[in-house]
Write a structure and sequence with these properties.
Helix content: 55-70%
Number of strands: 2
Shape: globular
Bound molecules: fe (ii) ion
Largest sheet: 2 strands, antiparallel
Distance between the termini: 42 Å
Strand content: under 5%
Radius of gyration: 22 Å
Oligomer: single chain
Structural class: mainly alpha
Order of helices and strands: HHHHHHHHHHEEHHH
Length: about 325
């Protein structure tokens, strides 16, 4: 299966479409949802498997930088909140693996591809969380950027993905608020705490901007994905919305966005800002970020350590099936 999960095809001109493909596109244009057993073009299926699979992997790998702080949260309350948040992310991963499975790929295939480094997860999770303020910055900026991406996806054309997004978005807004709440406490704390908050913002600002992906002019998948409503907004549109939402929040905290090019642009009614260093983005995607090796190792180890438990569950299910079959035979 994985060998087929290559890049989505370019946009097909209408005159080259088959009658089935035209009918499919018309359903999408009317705003209908596509459901698992219905006909769909192979490119649509593959693009969705890649997108939903990457999204699921991101939720699961995304637990690692925050999980790192559960045992060191400063109060019992903060610990309980962080624990709930990290558990939510596990749930998001599970909904999304289930949504991907409706497209004919198994969870094992997706996980094998992740563990072999053939499938990606969001590059943001390859950055370390060095201190408690980072947990604030991650919730505020990383979950904030994730919401920006995910809210429009509630209207995506594939039914199971769209429904998963509706539920996930409700939880993401709690995640963003808990992060901002940590930042408010830190920014209003001692000078050292405020400095930690500023330092966390400095380190997470550009990686958060990178979460929306490269500029539209460099993004190969955009046009076809947008026609299929797998993608609703362009990367640049979402990045601009994120900056416009986040800058006033930073000002409210009394923190400075680490960008000397940041300026209000009256004409566009939004902030002008400097582009992230895209060479860093591509290096992290290619496996050379600060924590790529550590993250993947943690996932592979967790998978291997859990093998006895999965085997036990399967053995138990088989025995229970055999017992039920025997009972049926005896009753007949
Ligand atoms: Fe999530
Ligand atoms: Fe989240």
């Amino acid at each position: 299966m994985y060998a087929q999960m290559v890049k989505s095809e370019g946009m097909k001109p209408r005159e080259e479409m088959t009658p089935e493909e035209i009918a499919f596109q018309e359903r999408i244009d009317r705003g209908e949802k596509i459901e698992p057993k219905e006909w769909m073009p192979e490119g649509y299926r593959k693009t969705l498997i890649r997108q939903i699979g990457q999204h699921a992997h991101s939720e699961i790998v995304g637990q690692l930088p925050e999980g790192n702080w559960i045992t060191r949260a400063p109060t019992l309350e903060r610990k309980a909140i962080l624990l709930a948040k990290v558990q939510d992310e596990a749930g998001h991963g599970l909904y999304l693996y289930s949504a991907a499975e409706t497209l004919g790929v198994s969870r094992d295939e997706l996980l094998d591809a992740l563990h072999a480094g053939k499938m990606k997860y969001s590059s943001i999770f390859n950055y370390p969380t060095l201190n408690w303020a980072d947990i604030g910055a991650v919730g505020w900026l990383v979950d904030g950027a994730a919401i920006m991406n995910q809210v429009p996806l509630q209207r995506t054309s594939y039914g199971p993905y769209s429904r998963a997004m509706i539920r996930i978005c409700k939880e993401e807004s709690f995640h963003q608020r808990q992060g901002y709440d940590i930042m408010m406490k830190m920014a209003a704390g001692t000078p050292e705490q405020k400095e930690m908050a500023q330092d966390a913002l400095n380190r997470f600002w550009y990686p958060a901007l990178m979460m929306f992906g490269p500029s539209d002019k460099d993004s190969v998948h955009s046009a076809q994905s947008m026609a299929w409503k797998i993608k609703i907004n362009t990367n640049d549109e979402l990045r601009q919305k994120f900056v416009d939402q986040t800058v006033p929040q930073a000002h409210y905290l009394g923190l400075t966005i680490p960008d000397e090019g940041l300026a209000w642009n009256e004409e566009k009614g939004g902030w002008d800002f400097s582009e992230p260093d895209w060479s860093e983005f591509f290096a992290v995607i290619a496996g050379n970020g600060p924590c790529n090796t550590e993250r993947l190792e943690a996932r592979v180890t967790a998978w291997e350590d859990g093998a006895w438990f999965r085997d036990g569950l399967m053995a138990h299910a088989k025995k229970a099936d055999a017992r039920r079959a025997a009972a049926r035979m005896a009753a007949e």
